[in-house]
From TrEMBL:
Membrane topology label: Multi-pass membrane protein
Protein name per UniProt: Saly-type abc antimicrobial peptide transport system permease component
Any GO MF annotation of the entry: transmembrane transporter activity
Source organism of this protein record: Bifidobacterium thermophilum RBL67
Keyword Translocase found: no
Length: 489
């Protein structure tokens, strides 16, 4: 019997008892829909976790520390638990590793004070300066918020919120700072405002435009505990720096970085420059420190894909370095999400198993009602394999039809859940709900259905249907041809 004949008989037999077939398919639809919807909620949790980690920084960045880790002062002291030192050769070796997109040495210099504006009235007592190899700027995927990329020696970049770190030394303490917009609430109710709540509508611009105002970098003097005691610039009567001395040096910021804590504090608050530029700057503002060796306190390695972070970390550790990344936290969150998906998927699978009972019942009834037909088919020369295949095709068709309809219903349910989360219906909302390509908090959907889940659901529903129909199909082939012809059914 040809496959086309099996399909024709399948369609004919399924439509012979339409009500029973529809109810059986409906059971598969409910079971399949339960599995897809439940697992999609777990996938939504996974997407929310990824977005949360992404807000903390680039998930493909690995921070490498070595024996010359200096704790952030940029001066080599030989401390650290790693056995190898981070130097230019080590950084070059990192770049040669498989799956590595870029690598750079990283230096953090904290012994500075930043001032700006007329008579240096705007002051940042805790200036953070970080340095990397600027030739790796694009490879490390640094992003600009405004301004231009560093394309020449001496270019200095500022973090997205660096300007908000400056206080106005001529204003009273209650009004001498500007709050970062990221620190403000999305919205405040009248009751919350009465209690002092501020939202993003209250955000104020910083005191000056950091892209058009030169910044003076001076050396901060620290006490024995490491706290800033004084600076190389004179101070006003309130103890804050107001104007620079000859030991300070001026720099011009060419662009603002987008905040990415995975690439260092300077992307949010501080200055980022080339390592050679930092060496020149330290030589001018802090000659005694320049007498030492300005060394890498860490290295940043960017991997091509987050799935390869573990492999690259393993290779770097075998070279004698210690590493840290967001991978461990992501793996922990994935493990929790996987457990949730298994629980939710198990609940949905119960519904599909109940549907399997309905399929088995339908096929048993079909065999009982078609005993005479089976006998005639055997008398006409149909083999045992043909008859078994006929019933299995019918059972499989129920699973495929139910699985496809269940997936379509699940997609609509997922879309509705996400649109309710978004709070509106438009072309933009639909695109976000389906593709998840929104921005900000809206980028995390509640329900996410990956393509493989549709394939799995249809395949699982078909498999359950075939297993349920196997028993009745074997029953059909065991019916003796002569007894079957004599049957009234």
């Amino acid at each position: 019997m040809r496959f086309s004949d099996l399909v024709h008989l399948c369609r004919q037999n399924l439509f012979r008892r339409k009500s029973r077939t529809i109810l059986t398919v409906l059971g598969v639809v409910v079971g399949c829909c339960s599995i897809v919807t439940m697992v999609s909620l777990g996938s939504g949790i996974d997407e929310q976790n990824k977005q949360m980690l992404a807000s903390m920084g680039d998930l493909t960045i690995i921070t490498v520390t070595g024996a010359n880790n200096t704790g952030g002062m940029g001066m080599a002291d030989g401390s650290g638990t790693a056995t190898a030192r981070i130097d230019d050769k080590a950084v070059k070796d990192f770049r040669s590793l498989q799956y590595v997109a870029g690598a750079t040495g990283h230096v953090t210099y904290l012994d500075a004070i930043l001032t700006a504006g007329p008579a240096n009235r705007y002051v940042d007592q805790n200036g953070v300066i970080e340095a990397i190899d600027m030739t790796q700027f694009d490879a490390m995927d640094y992003q600009l918020d405004s301004g231009r990329k560093p394309n020449r020696q001496g270019d200095v970049l500022a973090g997205q919120y660096t300007a908000y770190d400056f206080i106005d030394s001529l204003r009273p303490e209650s009004d001498n700072f500007r709050m970062r917009p990221s620190y403000l609430a999305d919205s405040c109710t009248p009751e919350q405002r009465a209690e002092g709540c501020e939202d993003k509508s209250d955000a104020q611009d910083p005191f000056f435009n950091i892209l058009t105002t030169k910044i003076t970098v001076g050396a901060a003097q620290t006490d024995d505990s490491g706290n800033v005691a004084s600076s190389s610039t004179p101070t006003a009567s309130n103890g804050q720096t107001t104007e620079g001395s000859g030991s300070g040096t001026q720099i011009q910021v060419s662009g603002l970085l987008k905040e990415d804590n995975g690439k260092g504090q300077a992307t949010s608050s501080g200055l980022l420059m080339d390592i050679a530029t930092l060496k020149d700057l330290v030589a001018k503002i802090h000659p005694d420190a320049a007498a030492g060796t300005l060394a890498y306190d860490s290295a940043l390695v960017r991997v091509q894909d987050i799935d390869h972070v573990a492999d690259v970390e393993s290779q770097i550790r075998t070279m004698g370095f210690t590493t840290s990344s967001s991978r461990d936290m992501l793996d922990s969150l994935k493990e929790q999400t996987r457990s949730i998906q298994l629980i939710l998927g198990g609940i949905g699978a119960v519904a599909l198993l109940v549907a399997a009972i309905g399929i088995a019942n339908t096929m048993v009834m079909s065999v009982t009602e078609r005993v005479r037909e089976i006998g005639i088919m055997k008398a006409l020369g149909c083999t045992v394999h043909d008859i078994r295949a006929m019933f299995l095709v019918e059972a499989g068709a129920i699973g495929v039809i139910g699985g496809v309809i269940g997936c379509l219903v699940s997609a609509l349910i997922s879309l509705a859940i996400n649109l309710i989360r978004y709070g509106g219906v438009s072309a933009e909302h639909l695109q976000w709900a389906i593709l998840g390509n929104g921005t900000g908090d809206e980028a995390a959907r509640i329900s996410v259905i990956p393509w493989w889940l549709y394939v799995f659901a249809i395949a699982f529903a078909t498999l359950i249907s075939l297993i349920s129909g196997f028993g009745p199909a074997n029953k059909a082939v065991r019916v003796p041809a002569l007894d079957a012809i004599k049957s009234n059914q």
